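Duplicate of #3305? Posting structure anyway:
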């Protein structure tokens, strides 16, 4: 058992999802991610029935029972009728390294609010990878684990560089420099926090792009946990998405497709 990175109060429990085993906090409904990060689902509204109602408004109709409603969701997913999937919302609280947040913020269909380094002094919290990766031999966008000569020393070099930047940051602030200027010396490994509000249509686009093996390993760790929350809150839509909507390349998703009761 590990302590929850978010609420610090709760102890995480092992949760199995497809082929993954993750640290989950039942107290604040969050997963620990990377070394100090987390993703929590803090609000959700709507759901599968809202998708069905939005679709049937065209005919002035509502729900027709589980079997027919599920069928309708499958039909809409197969035929790319996206708008009925826009009437629910997920609000996530995320703590991630800045380089992950930068990739995340490229997803324009959704809303973000982030902690401000102008108003808050950053704590010494940085992402330190346990393993380094080398460029993928065939795929320019990807990287792979490999035996790297002197890896331990290289990770130490990475840590020393961060430590030195953080010391400079503290020194600048202690000398009276404004936080908004001092922060410019901090590296991309620094953890930031943000809220992300997103509808299921945009969430599925995010999953397609960020669970896929082309995406950087670190953001994939968050994206895969988002799939768990998605299934938990919208199981029919999740099922339709896994079967007809996911178009990325991912063993994790292939595994879910096989192992989950769709
Ligand atoms: C593996 C990978 C590598 C990447 N590499 C780079 C890179 O090297 N450089 C880089 O700059 N970015 C890169 N990106 C980011 C990528 O280009 C997208 O900005 C990001 O994935 C967000 O995708 P999106 O636009 O579909 O999402 P959103 O911004 O959430 O948009 C969702 C959908 O809304 C529609 N939409 C949104 N805005 C518009 C618009 N202005 N006009 C028309 N339709 C719109 C589109 O259909 C879009 O798919 C990369 C992404 C991935 C996954």
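Output from current build:
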């Amino acid at each position: 058992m590990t302590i929850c990175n978010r609420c610090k109060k709760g102890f995480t429990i092992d949760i199995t999802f497809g082929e993954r085993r993750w640290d989950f906090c039942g107290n604040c409904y969050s997963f620990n991610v990377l070394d100090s990060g987390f993703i929590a689902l803090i609000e959700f509204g709507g759901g599968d029935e809202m998708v069905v109602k939005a679709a049937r408004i065209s005919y002035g109709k509502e729900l027709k029972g589980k079997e027919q409603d599920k069928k309708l969701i499958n039909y809409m997913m197969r035929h790319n009728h996206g708008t009925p999937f826009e009437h629910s919302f997920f609000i996530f609280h995320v703590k991630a390294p800045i380089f992950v947040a930068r990739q995340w913020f490229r997803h324009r269909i959704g809303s973000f609010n982030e902690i401000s380094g102008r108003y808050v002094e950053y704590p010494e919290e940085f992402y330190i990878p346990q393993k380094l990766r080398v460029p993928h031999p065939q795929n320019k966008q990807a990287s792979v684990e490999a035996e790297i000569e002197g890896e331990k020393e290289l990770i130490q070099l990475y840590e020393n560089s961060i430590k030195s930047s953080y010391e400079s940051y503290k020194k600048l602030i202690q000398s009276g420099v404004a936080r908004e200027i001092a922060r410019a010396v901090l590296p991309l490994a620094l953890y930031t926090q943000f809220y992300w509000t997103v509808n299921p249509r945009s969430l599925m686009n995010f999953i397609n792009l960020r669970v896929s093996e082309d995406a950087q390993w670190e953001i994939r760790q968050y994206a895969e946990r988002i799939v768990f929350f998605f299934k938990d809150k919208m199981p029919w839509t999740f099922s339709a998405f896994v079967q007809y909507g996911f178009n990325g390349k991912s063993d994790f998703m292939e595994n879910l497709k096989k192992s989950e009761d769709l």
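Confirmed duplicate; merging threads. The mean pLDDT is 95. Residues 106-109, 141, 202, 205, 209-210, 214-215 surround flavin-adenine dinucleotide (CB under 6 Å).
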